[in-house]
Design goal:
The chain is α+β, with helices and mostly antiparallel strands. It is about 40% helix and about 20% strand. The protein is built from ten helices and seven strands. It has a seven-stranded mixed beta sheet with strand order 1-3-2-7-6-5-4, sandwiched between helices. β4 and β5 form a beta hairpin. α4 packs across α6 and α4 runs antiparallel to α9.
Length: about 260
């Protein structure tokens, strides 16, 4: 029996390793003088394509990609009624003019409006964050750097692997939220919808130790399959690159198109 057990364990280990195929995506980043990694999960074949296995499990701040779980939690605990409820702008001008107005959840998600989600955080409270981050197994679950700051380059950290695992659970609705919460959040997440596919995604950006980190995470639903992805890149220190934010989407789109997913 022991031999059978260890043989089975060995087979499972081999499968886990073979299910992570290393693919060189570096040319897509080098084209823009950037460093980064791209990670994809094929739902039908249950297999990963990853640029680097160590980078796949390295955790950094989720930045605004946290707006996905933040939206789920806010809706579930009643911090906001639905995607159409308005939160009034406080009149303080921020660094993005598009933030300087009243927002509903759909607009705040699309515009990545920090003040809106900080107000939701105050309504949600630490106890709810502790409860749901643990229940969702989201990143390191560390909110110690402050109720309105922990996801903004601070204490909360998550790896590309964990990002994709979380998105898979969201897609399958295997997280501790109601059907209504899933339905609203999935509507808010839609970035592009065609006859061929639906793309749900979120960008994120944070400055960590003077280095800008950019995320783009999400999933593409097609008629016969679903593809989950996470891109994380960084800008060289002290280099001026005003187009850095847009590169996250450009690089991801190029890769997904080459793979025949978009």
């Amino acid at each position: 029996m022991k031999k059978i057990f260890f043989a089975s364990l060995f087979i499972c280990s081999v499968f886990r390793i073979s299910a992570q195929k290393v693919v060189d995506f570096s040319q897509y980043f080098k084209e823009y003088d950037l460093e980064g990694g791209f990670f994809l999960y094929n739902y039908k074949t249950k297999s990963y394509q990853v640029s680097d296995k160590s980078d796949f499990v390295r955790a950094t701040s989720p930045a605004s990609t946290f707006k996905i779980p933040n939206s789920l939690i806010a809706l579930e605990v009643g911090a906001i009624k639905d995607e159409n409820e308005i939160i009034r702008w406080d009149g303080e001008k921020r660094w993005l003019p598009v933030w300087d107005k009243d927002h509903d959840l759909t607009e705040a998600y699309k515009n990545s409006t920090v003040w809106f989600y900080q107000e939701l955080a105050r309504r949600i409270g630490e106890k709810n964050y502790d409860k749901y981050l643990k229940a969702c197994n989201y990143g390191n679950k560390d909110i110690s750097s402050g109720l309105t700051q922990f996801w903004l380059g601070k204490s909360l950290k998550i790896s590309p692997k964990n990002q994709i695992e979380f998105l898979r659970k969201l897609y399958e609705e295997k997280l501790p939220f109601s059907k209504r919460t899933f339905e609203i959040t999935k509507r808010v997440m839609v970035r592009e919808k065609t006859n061929e596919y639906t793309l749900r995604a979120k960008t994120g950006m944070a400055t960590i130790d003077k280095i800008d980190i950019g995320w783009f995470v999400g999933y593409v639903e097609k008629k016969d399959n679903v593809y989950f992805f996470a891109l994380r890149m960084q800008k060289p220190e002290n280099k001026q690159m005003p187009e850095f934010a847009s590169r996250r989407i450009e690089i991801t789109t190029k890769i997904l198109k080459q793979m025949g997913i978009l």
